[in-house]
Write a structure and sequence with these properties.
The chain is α+β, with helices and mostly antiparallel strands and about 100 residues long. The chain has a single domain, classed as Roll (Nuclear Transport Factor 2, Chain: A), CATH 3.10.450.80. The chain is built from two helices and six strands; from the N terminus they run βββααβββ. It has helices at about 35-45, 60; strands at about 1-5, 5-10, 15-25, 70-75, 80-90, 95. The strands form two sheets. Strands 2-3-4-5 form a four-stranded antiparallel beta sheet, with no helix packed on it. Strands 1-6 form a two-stranded parallel ribbon. The longest helix has 12 residues, at about 35-45. The chain starts with a strand and ends with a strand. The relative contact order is 0.31.
């Protein structure tokens, strides 16, 4: 999917359609030991039944998605406010120069 560098779309802060610069949202920092991860580790080590089985190939067992949802960061050229817009799933995402 190719997206132009600048698009004209509605700005909710200006209440009109203006030109926006487009960037792709970065993934962000991931916490190493989130609450769910700590809970999972506790269950694995304590001996719950289903968690102690040998690991199976999850990709065969469940349908694993091969695409990511692309999110755009739109920055208004008039007011400078940023808004997010989810474009959808695509294997390849590119912003045209």
């Amino acid at each position: 999917m190719k997206v132009p560098k600048e698009i004209r779309t509605f700005c909710p802060h200006c209440k009109k359609a203006t030109i926006h610069t487009v960037k792709q949202q970065s993934k962000g920092k991931e916490r190493k030991m989130s609450k769910g991860r700590r809970r999972f580790e506790r269950r694995v080590t304590s001996g719950y039944g289903a968690f102690c089985r040998p690991k199976q190939n999850i990709s065969k067992r469940y349908g694993v998605k091969v695409t990511k949802k692309a999110t755009l960061v739109l920055k208004c050229k008039e007011c400078g406010k940023k808004t997010l817009k989810v474009v959808g799933r695509s294997k390849k995402f590119e912003i045209e120069r």
